[in-house]
């Protein structure tokens, strides 16, 4: 039997050698494009960045949420090529893009492939997310049970209710102020002005963020991610592939990547903070720090899942950037932006960059 350390030693190193993405845009906007066109742009940009032909790709992992089965094949066939390679489609809600990347990395790490394309795209509908299949059990039924038992269910969209109430729980438990959440929205919109791929590139004052249209409780529209159309792609490669194609100057190693699903505490502790994923994030971060040998103080730039401003603040604590309950203090110190300890969501985050589910976490 191998020890865990011996098993890690047998795994191969994995590198990102090329990336590409489209500008994220509002669904249904003028000149909106279909998903094959979005995938083509992102994929071709990634291949050009890596300076390799599509024929060098062994497998592809494609993520999308809204679309018929095998959209991944259609997206690739008529834009990048038909080489007969395996194309694996994944659908994991907001973590769809990172799941495509996770599977692609494992294929190389385990020695199954030398070069894999991780591609994510989404063509969404306007407005909040809704239920598509009302004739079967919802995958969120346990989450909804907890929400209803504790607070009841209002007519507002479900996602902002869940994350807004998680933020409210943080306020009640730790004395966090609604201004702390608003400052996160203000910061992310400010960051987005430097990102040409961002859906929104407008800067707002803190007062404007707080006075914008209310979505649920303290969450205003400028603290919530929009629905978006867009695509992103990354080319992953083994060390041998990097050497073969002379990609050492551009290769960026993935030192650690973890994926978690719900733990018993997500529901048993009757906590909205836990229900929206705090313990999953905390454990995934712990494993990444352990495998990489790094700590939060070794990190300079962080992109995290800010579907709502409340989740960004909760994730500061889950990542160990500050003790639990001290996310608001971190915000007040300015440790989440330029000049502070970390630059968090320099892209503008989901709040401003946009959130085409299959694409957002690929790059």
From TrEMBL:
Residues 14-239 form the Thiolase N-terminal domain. The keyword DNA-binding does not apply. It is an enzyme of class 2 (transferase). One of its GO terms (molecular function) is acyltransferase activity, transferring groups other than amino-acyl groups. Keywords: Lipid transport, Lipid-binding, Peroxisome, Transferase, Transit peptide, Transport. GO terms for cellular component: peroxisome. The keyword Transferase applies. Residues 276-361 form the Thiolase C-terminal domain. Its main location: other. GO terms for biological process: lipid transport. Pfam families: Thiolase_C_1, Thiolase_N. It is found in: Peroxisome. Its EC number is 2.3.1.176. Gene3D superfamilies: 3.40.47.10. This is propanoyl-CoA C-acyltransferase. It comes from Sapajus apella (Brown-capped capuchin). The lineage of its organism: Eukaryota, Metazoa, Chordata, Craniata, Vertebrata.
